[in-house]
Write a structure and sequence with these properties.
333 residues; eight-stranded mixed β-sheet; five-stranded mixed β-sheet
Amino acid sequence: MSWDVAMEQALTLAVADGSVRGTNPRVGCVIVKDGAIVGTGTHLGSGTDHAEVMALREAGGAALGATAVVTLEPCSHTGRTGPCTQALIAAGIVEVVYAMADPTVEASGGHGELQAAGISVIGGVLNDRAQIINADWTFMKRYGRPFVIGKIAMSLDGRVDGVGEHRLQLTGRQAQQWAHELRAEVDAVAVGSGTISRDNPSLSVRDVFGASQPLRIALGGNEVPSEAAIRRDTELFVQVTQAQPEQALRQLCEMGVQRILIEGGPRLLSSYLSAGFVDRMHWLIAPIFIGRGPMAPSASTLLEHLEMPRVSLLGEDVLISAELAGREVSTTA
């Protein structure tokens, strides 16, 4: 079995549980001996056994003289669990093949520790693939905050709503389906607490097969009524009263949110854009004129900072997506 084939198996294990969230990376591991896989493991989240430990447990005595193939450089520190390097050494592993080097100060160094113990170590096998599945975690570790996606729907004249009593439904069926698919790809969906009082959104994912429900975040200090739709799943509702975007995002990072979607309202989104804390923007433009009503955040001040703009049609609506210059580019949503 080639190391590329074995690493493909480990990468598949790493993303096998799409519901895994939190401050830890997605990691898969296979133990290979005499060309066959004798143990497999997946890291399921903070406080649970690491993938290497799970794979060694399944392999048992067959781990002696075997190779461990793992998607992330084995950690060398003691946190809520022990160092994987010591577990691999104690099990009698003679070779370790990994994809992505650990980018953190606290857990890196496993490569050298394993080599010092006489274990052959090969790094960088399918590194690009491993980087993709942990892009949000790497971003969070580097910047101390989640990757932030902004989304707003507006009319041709830049309005997000009219002036009447009832909320306008700007976009059509295809755009609405896309919006639910976008929600399914993030850890949390946020709106301002004022928007909750005005529009009463649920922020749930609907009509996306197999999707996990994101956290529903109210940003701001306005009281969220007990009967608000966002509160229906109490274990998924969080209110963050921090007014400063940087402080709010750091609090969400500490909660394990790696990727967040900010859906509105326009004042909240403007504050995050102005502070430089939006990494990707999606504009949905409906083919209508409203004439009067609240305006969407102006994109004119962002034009020189946009990278990789993309335009597509969703039924009758136009979707414009772009990265914000200088940000790490993640590969989904």
